[in-house]
Each structure stands twice: as structure tokens, then as C-alpha cells.
């Protein structure tokens, strides 16, 4: 069997989302670095893998995929028997789906902007737009209020078990915990406990170790 | 059996997404209008249905859902035997998933901004931000270039059959076809043919008829 292949960059939060899933599933994979500094992701060979020129891309034998959440969904279904079950049982899937959509349409747009402004811009020598940060932090607080209420009701977003609905949040949370934005997560006890719980998962710890080598 | 219930607004594109799915499935449902003009969606009774205060929300017996794409996913799986099969067969699901994610992360952010600027702002007596329109149209052209290439390869985004991956695009396409933004879709022959094909579906025609009563 051809090995699974991840094309991406270890600093890309979307690539990290795929790593997290593969580690939860105890799956071996080859990693092919895409050099963002030389715009390798905007050149034809990579564009054939992802026509939008974004990392990551993925290969499972003949199947070629892109979009991190489509990749994690495929891995979770195709390797159901491996490692952590990342999908709720059928009856509980609709609720997991709701929170996967909330991540995509509420959490990601807000935290994605913050990650760009307070993590990547300083790293790239660019100037943070303070107004954008204030506005995004306000929006983040509203989103986290809803999360706090949800996590009072159930240990994880989808229910009592860790699923993809939680996993998809990990890269942006990890990034923001290294910045002052962390305070908004820590101010809400159930959100704080959930963040600490999911960031301590052995699979995620392994993903983080990749960043320091 | 308690009837399916949609809580929303006929002018909301997200509500229309759910209508489109229910009509494709030939399912009866009750519609409960949420009065956006009096901010009914920001009051406690509605917030209990969707804590983010957005339409639509949905009920299927005891199951209460929100987020339009989580609702269409539930309906497509739970009522698999009804009407149009909106999910590809298992082996082809990963590719459908990719294009569902593309809609969510590439198409919706761009066309959602345009719908706001060129459809809803004028309707509400607000001033369109021309700079925002120019920028979003540029981004839309890039996105549609990728769609054109994809639709040269296969009749629909997920493959040879109409699925949720196509359906999720309908409300924003319909809105923008009533504006000058339409030209970007019409300039690309495969995109144009796809738009005309999916907008002519009897289920979608029924959704549009709701707007004129």
C-alpha cells in the first residue's frame, strides 16, 4: 500500500489540522514540505494538487485531496478502526456536524484573523493592525460565550467524546495561547478546561514537537 | 411523526439553502418566520434554537439543529431514500467533501460579501462600499477560474451527479444573477452552464417562488 502523503508546511495551521488527525489515528505518513518562502504553492506542480494554491494537499493511494477538513473527514471515515474514533455514533452525528460548522463559520474566521495579526505578521516583520485585533477580539469573546455555555453542558463540543469537532480547533488555539489573546479563553472556566484537555492529547503533543525540530 | 420545522427568513440565503435541500428530498415541513426586522433572532426564545442568533434553525422531532450546512447534511443522510440522493456513493464522498469545503471556505466568503454589498445594502438603504466590491469581484474571478477548470472535467462539482456540493451554492448564485456580478459567471462557459442547470432544478424553482408570495 502506498503511504499516506501530506504536502504542506509545519507552520501552517491547516497542515497541523491534518497532522493532528493522522496522529490520533496512529497512521504513518510521508510529509512533503512545500516551501512557502519561494511560493512553491503557487507554481503549477503544486497547483495540480490544490488549484487554490493553499496548503495542505493529501494523497491516499490514487485519491488526491485538498482542504484540511475534507482530508480529516476522509481519514476519519476510511480509517475508522484505527486509533481514536473521531466521529460520533450515527445518532449523534448531526450535533457533531453543527459544531464542525460552528468551527468553520464562527471560530475560524475570527481566530484566523487574530492568528494572522498577532502571530504571523510579527513573525514576518509586518505591522499588526491594532484596530483589526480589537474588533476580532470582541467577536471572539461573543463566540467563546457560546462555547462556554455549550461546554457547561457537555465535556466536548460534539458530546461526551473528543471528535473532529474539537480537533479542528487545535491549531488556532495553540497559536493564540502564545499571545495575549489567551486571556479570553482563560477567562471562561469551561473553555479553559477544554483547551487544556485537548492541547494535552498525546497526538497533539507530537504535532507540536514537529515545530521545534 | 412531528413535522420537520424550519425557523428562518425567506430572504436569508442560509434559510434558502435548507429549503432547497428539503424540496430536493420531497419532504414536507412547517416554516416558522423569524422576524429579522424586530431582531427576533437576537431574543432569548430564538437564541435557545441558535445561540449565535443567526437563521435558520431546524427541528426534526426531538433533534434541534442550526447551521444550514449541518441541517442539509442531516436531512441528506436521515432521508437518504427520499427524492434526490444528495450524497455521492461512499467511494466518491471524499471528492464531494473537498468541494463542499471549497464552497464554505472559498465561494461563500467572497460571494457572501458581494451579496451583502450589492443586494442587501441597497435593499436596506445603505451605501455599497465600491472598494470592497472591486476587491471581492477580483477574488471571485480567481475562484471561478478554478470552478471553470473543475466543471470542464465533470458535470457537477462532486462528479457526474448533482449533490449537496452544488446545492450549497444556489442561494448566493441566485442573488448575484440579479446584479452586474453575474457577468463573471457568464464569462466562463462551464460555470455558466452549471449555474443555469442547477438554478433550473424544480426544487430550486419552488424555493424561488416562495420569495414572490
TrEMBL record, chains A, B:
Cited Pfam families: GST_C (PF00043), GST_N (PF02798)
InterPro entries associated with the record: Glutathione-S-Trfase_C-like, Glutathione-S-Trfase_C_sf, Glutathione_S-Trfase, Glutathione_S-Trfase_N, GST_C, GST_Phi_C, Thioredoxin-like_sf
Keywords: Transferase
Reaction(s) the record says it catalyses: RX + glutathione = an S-substituted glutathione + a halide anion + H(+)
GO cellular component: cytoplasm
Domain GST C-terminal: 89-213
GO MF term set: glutathione binding; glutathione transferase activity
Gene Ontology process terms (BP): glutathione metabolic process; response to toxic substance
Keyword field contains Transferase: yes
EC number in record: 2.5.1.18
Listed name of the protein: glutathione transferase
Native organism: Stephania yunnanensis
